[in-house]
Amino acid sequence: MTVDTLPVLAVAPARVMRGAGILAQSQAAIAALGQRPLLIGGNHTLKVAAPFLAPALADLAVKQASYKSDCSESALKALKAIAQTHQADLIIGVGGGKALDAAKLLAYQLRLPVVTIPASAATCAAWTALSNVYSDQGAFLYDVALERCPDLLILDYDLVLTAPQRTLVAGIGDALAKWYEASVSSGASDKALIIAAVQQARILRDILFQKTAAALQDPGGADWQEVVDATVLLAGVIGGLGGAQCRTVAAHAVHNGLTQLEASHGALHGEKVAYGILVQLRLEEIGPKNSLAATARQQLLQFYDLVGLPKSLDDLGLGEISLVDLRQAAQFACREGSDIHHLPFTVAPESLMGAMVSTLAPEMRSVARSLSHPEILEATSELTP
């Protein structure tokens, strides 16, 4: 009898606590995991979160440490030394994606339990068994698959409400990518859990389309809480169910390429991913001539107008990008092993450059001309619908 080894799945955190003011009720749950936690976050977030965390961490021997600005190898090395000196028996991460990724990866390296406390709804990092590692300069390097999701996730709406609304909008962009990427990479799968993950991604998209406008008008309200749940929790469910077989595609590859440019570091993760969705749809339009991709792009452009997501390089603050920088980003996005190669057709850096300057096609055709470079002009010669 042949035994098929199936991928190991890290589906969900062992426990999820959520609600307005829930941190004040979480002391017992945290204490059950450890008595000497190392609390990791950015300096600003640690200051903002302090009054929310105080009742949750009372009577524990807490050591606080900043991850600086990125989940980088040097930051992890410094945090590891602090944890060992403190004799930490628990890692707690509070903040956005990079802080939570650093906490999860450090806990994995030290074989310690980890608690994630999102301070914004900008990503689903609080849920997932994955950490992205960046250079000290903020350029994406690689990701690390972890053995399990966090031991405890605490989603306190009151804490999330302290974050700028821009972070929620960015989280919406990041969550939307689940559908546009999973439907391409995994939509033809006949595996039950992958089918479920892809369909959950569609449901996630529909929830965001339906509830975002009301959510942004009433921060802290019922629709706002539903959208926060969607971006932080439901987006994580999709990755958990689908696992490594439910892959990201071009939207995240474009994000990773853009992070190689210092000029892009003012844009949030989800903002770059949201722009990357439009780039992916352009690639689908001009590669297999997918008319549905063109329709989807126009629908997204209207939605982006409504919520304030970036639609072009100019919206990302990269309107004056040089050809050298554009090529650098495209080449990284197309490097060997990149998620962009999960598209069902071949993408060369020149084609990607063409798609990157034409997310508003046909209006953005003039951008390619202004760059006055034969390779981009050739790549964009078929871009106008």
Give an overview in words:
This protein has 385 residues and is of the alpha/beta class. The protein is built from 15 helices and 8 strands. It has helices spanning 27-31, 43-57, 73-86, 97-110, 157-160, 165-185, 192-217, 222-242, 250-258, 269-286, 291-307, 323-333, 349-356, 365-371, 374-379, and strands spanning 16-19, 37-41, 63-66, 90-95, 114-118, 130-134, 140-145, 152-156. Strands 1-8-5-4-2-3 form a 6-stranded parallel sheet, with helices on both faces. Strands 6-7 form a two-stranded antiparallel sheet. Helix 4 (97-110) links the parallel strand 4 (90-95) and strand 5. The longest helix is centred in the middle third of the chain and has 26 residues, at 192-217. Mean pLDDT is 92; it is low at 363-377 and 379-385.
Give the SSE map:
Layout: E1 16-19, H1 27-31, E2 37-41, H2 43-57, E3 63-66, H3 73-86, E4 90-95, H4 97-110, E5 114-118, E6 130-134, E7 140-145, E8 152-156, H5 157-160, H6 165-185, H7 192-217, H8 222-242, H9 250-258, H10 269-286, H11 291-307, H12 323-333, H13 349-356, H14 365-371, H15 374-379
Parallel strand pairs: 1-8, 2-3, 2-4, 4-5, 5-8
Antiparallel strand pairs: 6-7
Helix pairs in contact: 3-4, 6-7, 6-8, 6-10, 7-8, 9-10, 9-12, 10-11, 10-13, 12-13
Defining key terms:
385 residues; alpha/beta; six-stranded parallel β-sheet; two-stranded antiparallel sheet; 15 helices; 51% helix; globular; disordered C terminus
The largest pleated sheet is described as: 6 strands, parallel
The SSE order reads: EHEHEHEHEEEEHHHHHHHHHHH
Number of continuous helical runs: 15
Q: Strands of the biggest beta sheet: in what spatial order? A: 1-8-5-4-2-3
